[in-house]
UniProtKB/TrEMBL annotation:
This is Histidinol-phosphatase (PHP family). GO terms for molecular function: catalytic activity. Pfam families: PHP. Signal peptide: none annotated. Residues 5-206 form the PHP domain.
Amino acid sequence: MLPPDGHVHSEFSWDARRVGSMRATCARAVAIGLPSVAFTEHVDLTPFRAGFLAGSFGDLVDADGILHAPLPDFDAYAESLDRCRAEFPGLEVLSGREVGQPHLHVAELAALPPVDRVVGSLHCLWDEEASAYAEPWLLFEDRPAPDVFRDYLAEVCRMGPGDFDTFAHLDYPVRSWPGEFDPRDFEEELRTALRSLTDRCLEINTRLPLHPTILRWWAEEGGRRVTFGSDAHEARFVGTGFAQAGERASAAGFAPGRRPGDPWVRA
Ligand SMILES: [Zn+2]
Ligand SMILES: [Zn+2]
């Protein structure tokens, strides 16, 4: 059995409005044998300077190049979840959200409707030059990528006040890494960031498969739970890479929880 997909987007996320489909994602999840899917739609309350995203979402970008992401339509989202649960009774369909920089928006996030899963992310960093938040790889233009990644990991350690159960894609800046990435170059900083998250779940994001060394450090630093996330924005990508991700989690000592969508736990 494949692991549950705990991080998927649909037409209710601002960056999947045109390509996402909750219904098609559920159908695809059933077809490939996923036990559970969590629709963690984007809640990005921090306006940020966007790179390639700005091209695709120009209607959301202001005159200064800052992207303002709209919130999901929570009512339509809830209705769609109900319809999918009725149509796909063999699939556990969980509600959720992916919150960018949850530690910066504690009060606003506390007022949102409750969901089954809250994935916390760090999608942007403060850019002194531009006096704005920016996608991490935009900062590579002015500073060496390793320095930016160290800043990113330091910011992860400041996310304690944020209300989220799972930390997503710890290697987010590596998605646009110049050259070969070796986690051992950042062992101390990665271990420190992992230690700051041990009360939460660490996500094995498969968009850029989480490096097995980081997973091993998670267990060594006291991490007890992992989740899996394809981060699919289109139905065809749900569960991508999950056979390998499940094998790697098993090898690191993690095993399925009680219910289909539960995090995997380490004995
Ligand atoms: Zn994300
Ligand atoms: Zn995502």
